Each structure stands twice: as C-alpha cells, then as structure tokens.
Amino acid sequence: VDETYIMVKPDGVQRGLVGEIISRLEKKGFKLTALKLFQCPKELAEEHYKDLKAKPFFPGLIDYITSGPVVCMAWEGVGVVASARKLIGSTDPLKAEPGTIRGDLAVQTGRNVVHGSDSPENGKREIGGTAYYVSGLKKVKYVSGHQLKHLGYGSDS
Ligand code: GTP
Ligand code: MG
Fold first, then answer.
1. Family, per the entry (predicted)?
2. What are the start-end ranges of the H helices in 57-129?
3. How does pLDDT run across 15-32, given as a tens digit for each residue?
4. For residue 9, which atom of ligand 1 is closest to its CA?
5. Is the N or the C terminus of the chain less surrounded, counting Cβ atoms within 10 Å?
C-alpha cells in the first residue's frame, strides 16, 4: 500500500487548521497510521528540505519550519502520494486551485500550511527515516472499516 508523509507546518498549527487538514484526507478515504505534534529541530528541518539547500529562501524556510510545533503524520491508501499532493494544491497558494488546501486556506508560498511527500520513495524515507528517529513518529497498524476498498483489500479494487 502506498504511504505518504504529511506535515502541518507551524502556520497551520497556529491558525488551527490541523483538524481541517486531517478531515480532508480522511474524507477522501485515506488512512491515518501515525501522528505526532512536535517541535522540529533545525537539523531535521535541514535534512527534510536538503534538496533546497542552495535556494535563496532556504534559511527563511528553516526558520519557518522551526518557528513552532508541526504535526507529522503518515497516511496510507491507494495512490495516496499523488492524491495528497493534489488535495494540497500548488506550492504557491495564489496559484493553487480553489478546493485545494492551499487554494482555500493560504496566500503565501512561504506560509503554505502543509507539506506532502513528492514521490513514493520520499514518502517512505520521510516516514521511516529521520522523522522516525528524531520525532518518534511511529506507525500503528489497524483496520479501518470504511476504507477497506480504498486500501485495496476490496474484491473490486
Ligand atoms: P512541500 O510539500 O513543503 O515540500 O512543498 P512543495 O513540494 O510544494 O514545494 P518545494 O518542495 O519545491 O518547496 C518546499 C517548501 O519551500 C515550499 O512548500 C515552501 O514553503 C518553500 N518554498 C518553495 N519555493 C519558495 C519560494 O520561492 N519562496 C519562499 N519563501 N518559499 C519557498
Ligand atoms: Mg516538496
């Protein structure tokens, strides 16, 4: 089953958007398998965004991500990586379509409320790698009844 790492960024937590973001993923039919509220240390923020290290906005990005608590989550379900990216919307909230999280809830690229893994490989790395060791984010196994079909267990999946 596909899995993705979703992180409500400090602005999302401060603005009280955690429930809204979780709700959108739940209603789509994905399954929450790990959740942790924690203060992201600088080292983990730098590791998480290491591909962007050369960008001029990198120091500001690290300050932003470490400015307050974040909510780290693992979600699973068929096609969850690409689908969550679609639900989140474009990086620049002003370009994100209405109906997406960023399109509905944000206005600035530098305060775009949520992160979603950009590939299945990065999803696995972000959930099982550094996030696990630094934050203690740990997956819980359980069966979520109404999602059986979405998770690929249904006969017509
Ligand atoms: P994430 O889900 O957070 O990884 O966003 P993304 O995949 O849509 O974008 P990307 O990985 O390219 O950039 C990571 C984050 O860096 C973005 O979500 C923004 O918060 C920030 N960022 C990217 N581009 C810019 C920029 O041009 N200016 C500023 N201030 N921040 C940026
Ligand atoms: Mg990204």
1. Belongs to the NDK family.
2. 58-65, 80-88, 101-105, 120-128
3. 999 999 999 999 999 999
4. 3
5. C
The token pair at 68 is 């307050």
Please state the three-class secondary structure of 13-63 as a single string: HHCCCHHHHHHHHHHHCCEEEEEEEEECCHHHHHHHCHHHCCCCCHHHHHH
109 lines ligand 1 (CB under 6 A): yes
Q: Determine if ligand 1 sits within 6 Å of the CB of residue 118.
A: yes
Pocket flag, ligand 1, residue 157 (CB < 6 Å): no
Query: Is the CB of 112 inside a 6 Å radius of any atom of ligand 1?
Result: yes
Please name which ligand lies nearest the alpha carbon of 116.
Answer: 1
- For residue range 99-127, what is the model confidence (pLDDT) as tens digits? 999 999 999 999 999 999 999 999 999 99
Tokens in use for 151?
A: 């998770």
Ligand number, closest to the Cα atom of 52: 1
Supply the pLDDT for residue 136.
85
Residues assigned a catalytic role: 115
Whole-angstrom Cα distance, residue 85 to residue 65? 19
Look at residue 157 and tell me whether its pLDDT is greater than 70: no
Kindly report, residue by residue over 44-90, the tens digit of the pLDDT. 999 999 999 999 999 999 999 999 999 999 999 989 999 999 999 99
